[in-house]
Amino acid sequence: MVAPVLEQLADAAGSLTIYSQDDPTFPDGMKVEDDTDLAVSWSLDLVTVPTLLRVHDGAVVERTEGWHRPSWEALTGMDGLGPGLPELRPGCGSRTLDPDVADDLAVRFGGARLRARRVELAALEDEAEAMFDRGWTDGLPVVPPTEARVLRMLAGTTRPPDEVVAVVPPDLVECSVEKVAVNAVMAGCRPEYLPVVLAAVEGFCTDTFNGHGLLATTYFAGPVVIVNGPAATRIGMNSGGNVLGQGNRANATIGRALQLVVRNVGGGRPGGVDRATLGNPGKYTFCFAEDEAGSPWEPLSVERGFDVGASTVTLFAGEGPRGIVDQLSRTPESLAASLAAAALGVAHPKMALGFDAVLVVSPEHARVFREAGWSKARVRDEILSRTVRRGAELVRGAGGIADGLPLGLEDLDIAKFGPAGLLIVHAGGGAGLFSAIIGGWINGPGGSQPVTMEVGT
Amino acid sequence: MTSTTRVVLDPTSEQAPARRERVARPASLAGKTVGLLDISKPRGDVFLDRLGELLSARGLRVERYRKPTFAKVAPVDLRHEIAATCDVVIEALAD
Description:
The complex is a heterodimer. Chain A contains 16 helices and 20 strands. Chain A is α+β, with helices and mostly antiparallel strands.
């Protein structure tokens, strides 16, 4: 349609260059550069044809998309372009965006940004089997991390691929954004999950969280990732029914991506540095979002010092969730006593102060506290005070059980949890007078402390 | 299937661990310094105390060390000190 205009421009301006994405013989009789391999179009990041660009000293200084006479005239400084043409035609999509070529182009022109070793699969190798054979999976199939998939994943973050995210234990190797993206692809993440995965990897690798010790321990625990803020909603995380279970892609794959980074980049594998006696199913993935909209309380992220509206991940060294059933408590005192009684079971009823816990309060239980006007701090304090016991019940030999606290503590009142040892989050489906407790691992500076990281872009 | 699906990116650190040979096991402990490393697990001290008595009774030099917490890697300075001081090390690993 714009062929007559191109002739006008070619006649008037000595420095016109025309590129064609599909047919360099058109328009007939004009000199047209062949861009059927789309190299120039890709480098110019075209989305529409025609696009008219003004280039000065090799740099694009102005562009207009489609045919819009005033814009073309303004850009060229010429009047009377395309007198027989309508004022406006929006143009067509650039071939660089065709679904069947976009991935190939991304690899051809963007692949150079990727530094990871290319592993060529043999013609007769099954892709899924090849991932198992190389030891790259957690025991479940993974998505093969092709260059095109990794490039799409990297579009989920503004961070450059070669930026170092963290030093990953146990091998203590620097892990780039790209390596996280590779493992996120394998885990099944969508690109928009990547900033959450990056934050989780950073948190895991802090000395405070002590991912190294957590990996190496014979204990059950693994990283539990709790997501707060608008990012959780934006990427479609589940904070409602079956929140700690299967079925939501973001919940499932973010936690899995973290574990794959630890395995593949950090070198932490069961039977190697991972010495767990029993482990727990959450070591495949354990990630969920807090239900903030339905909560009577401030979100976990705010409690931990972040602004309302900030998106965060909180990492907790936790074992599997343990259900707490209380279907009859209608007063906050009764329910707090109930939750406290169940919380005493963390690690062992005779153990105290060594293990933190996350209490996941479901909406129906939270309603009891909401109606009574109990703040989260009040609920925590009431549970903490109800989990204090006499040392005589806890020392070695008490209750006919050899294990327990050292002798000599019989006359002391001993708290089950320290003042910061009980995290409370609100999540779960709307029906069911249940809560859950996620027992921790060794707490404090000598073990693992919860870590909260802001989710970036 | 496009041609690119047959090439995947290596998800690992791509680092081959540097292998270092262990020091050869000594034929005899005579004249050696024995390090006893307590990793701070319960009752590790009981085990190492007894070993220390037995080794000292044989006239060996015994050095005691302790990790601040069993849940973290031994501090690099501690590892270096043990390596510089001792010929062999006995670690009380579990409770």
